[in-house]
């Protein structure tokens, strides 16, 4: 079985976590400052503040910007649905803008169409690690003085031209969940050149509880998932995901095993230590994923269209997503029966326009139904890549 992802873990991760739990000592707080400075450098911004999750980072940025009742926030029509209630919790309205059918990222023209007198922010996602047309979006936002917030949950280390994502907008947030480019078993980071914004985020985070248990639970879930793949015990569970009626039960079980990011809580020094160790190999791991993506793309039939990466941009390939000429769900089932685990529908991203009740984002609806995220991680071999391409080409044919 070729899994869809394989979280990047090191033996030292487990040793660090075991020691922290045994001694009930989450580590030296100075590590957090060191980790913040390191991520700020990778993101090309002067300041960064560690947070308990990417979504918490987004909520704190919007709070600092004073977003509240009557305000509108433009969001990609195709992104993580969990972000919508966080915007609504502030009293604001999430307004979806459609995506491009090739890049799966925001269409600048759709953003322009959605701007009203009530627009207070634009959330620009770099989907699956591929930089969006952020410079075009900034050109649209700047005359109206609307802050652009970059959702870099998938994109630590991605670049556009000679600039790093996270450094374009007013602020950005990153995620360190287990399958993200840097896995610190949860947590996130807010980056910005606005020192006051970073100070406000840091102040809010200081009051969170420091729960080692939550971090350890996430690490255990990663270990359990990897063991389930190695022993193939995961197969019936993955098969259930392909059967209507059982899909929801299987997804609910998955959510129970994989604890969701903590809404409150503090980012812990032991997580910073894990991040500092992994960042050293980030660029090499991104290069490897790019090589895999190019290799796989070259082997696919022309009517299977890999996500287009903008010219001059470098994606992290957090996910390798392809658009099929047919609905994705039956193809995923065929892949699974041939030993290849892939993601479809909500497992990749959500049709947020449909969730919000807007029926005018046809590209998001199309991608939601026709996209498959193929296996992508550093450890894939050439033979596995060839096998994925061969099975997918046959499954689509
Ligand atoms: C597009 C997007 N934005 C934001 C987030 C939030 O990050 P976190 O899970 O750390 O809260 C995610 C998480 O997967 C995401 O996919």
Name of the top-level CATH class of one domain: Alpha Beta
- The overall pLDDT average reads 95
Beta strand %: 5-15%
Oligomer: single chain
CATH architecture of one domain: 3-Layer(aba) Sandwich
User: What is the fold-level CATH name, i.e. the topology of one domain?
Assistant: Aspartate Aminotransferase, domain 2
Q: Which ranges are low-confidence, i.e. pLDDT below 50, for 5 or more consecutive residues?
A: none
Which structural class best describes the helix and strand composition?
A: alpha/beta
The named CATH superfamily of one domain: Type I PLP-dependent aspartate aminotransferase-like (Major domain)
How many strands in all? 16
Task: Name every ligand kind in the structure.
Answer: pyridoxal-5'-phosphate
Largest sheet, if any? 7 strands, mixed
Keyphrases for this structure?
397 residues; alpha/beta; Aspartate Aminotransferase, domain 2; 4-stranded antiparallel β-sheet
Report on this structure.
With 397 residues, this protein is α/β, with parallel strands linked by helices. The protein has a domain at 11-206: Aspartate Aminotransferase, domain 2 (3-Layer(aba) Sandwich), CATH 3.40.640.10. It is built from 16 helices and 16 strands. Strands 1-10-9-6-5-2-4 form a 7-stranded mixed beta sheet, sandwiched between helices. The longest helix has 19 residues, at 212-230. It starts with 10 loop residues before the first helix and ends with a helix. The protein binds pyridoxal-5'-phosphate. Pyridoxal-5'-phosphate (PLP) binds next to α3.
